[in-house]
Amino acid sequence: MDHFSVEDFKKSIETLLDIVRCAVCLETVQDEIVQCVNGHLLCGGCKTGLVNCPTCREQFSEVKPSRTIAQVIEALPTQCKHKKCEVYVRPGGDDHEKYCGFQITDCKLCEWEGCAKDILEHLKEQHPSTKIRTGEMKDMYIINFEYEKEMESNNAYFVDGQFFWYTISNDPVSKLFIKTCHAVPIGKCDDKFYLKVMLNSKETEFVSKIILNLDPDVDDDENSIIIPWKTVPNYIDSDGDFLYNHQIAKEVI
Q: Whole-angstrom Cα distance, residue 15 to residue 141?
């Protein structure tokens, strides 16, 4: 017997997936599976309203597919649910779909929506004046900051292959001044990143550091640093500018 290569194995799996692919939704059949007299399979929900099989135009069979077919389907990998992604997820699922770069994300600077992996390209093409920051600790300013007025600003960071939105928000009604990081998934990352914020004045100092959760579904509160609102005026200089230092960087273990 000739050597059966990995590529041959992949082709065999793809053939099996084609056999159990619904002719209507083009996904692996599910729900109450039905078949026509020639054995073509459809999802139970996709058959609704159909008289004949869309593949061969023959009638549907009254015989239910065998349990073996269901077992084969359960054992097969399924293609990632995000459009254009060609990765197959193993039975039982894994973290690929959660961190897949083909999932839809939005831009915090405009109304664009697109693949998460394309966010950097979008910013460079549509927001060329926007600075994409890296992880160095830097002095930052909010010019003419009026802390009793509501404000929000969004900044883009790309640190060691991971993209973040860094949002600064001031809510005088709730008396909250918050700095939040949100990771945009472009593939699962095993590295750990942190957010560090430092404020200094003659009267007081504020330092806080948190390890960021890269799970795209995480609550923003988990990736936020809250600065005591009453202390904010201490960090506004004589020109009315708010000075702060912050850093988003990879945690060195």
A: 58
| 82 lies in some domain | no
Q: Whole-angstrom Cα distance, residue 215 to residue 103?
A: 13
CATH number at residue 26: 3.30.40.10
Same domain? 130 vs 10 = no
Q: What angle do CA 218, 222, 223 make, to 5 degrees?
A: 90
Cα diameter, the chain: 84
The pair of three-digit structure tokens given for residue 184, joined into one six-digit string: 């945009």
Instruction: Say which residue the tokens 């995480």 belong to.
Output: 218
Neighbours of 165 (CB within 10 A): 19
Residue at token pair 């988003």: 248
96-153 pLDDT, tens digit each: 999 999 999 999 999 999 999 999 999 999 999 999 998 777 778 888 988 889 999 9
Query: Among 171, 161, 186, which Cα is nearest to 248's?
Result: 161
**One domain, residues 24 and 114:** no
Here the tokens at position 111 are 């109304």
The reply to whether 145 falls in a domain is yes
Number of domains into which the chain is organized = 2
For residue 124, count other CB atoms closer than 10 A to its CB: 11
Say how far apart CA 222 and CA 196 lie, in whole Å. Answer: 14
> What is the DSSP code (8-state) at residue 65?
P
Note whether residue 89 is domain-resident: no
Q: Identify the segments of the chain with pLDDT beneath 70.
A: 1-4, 92-93, 253
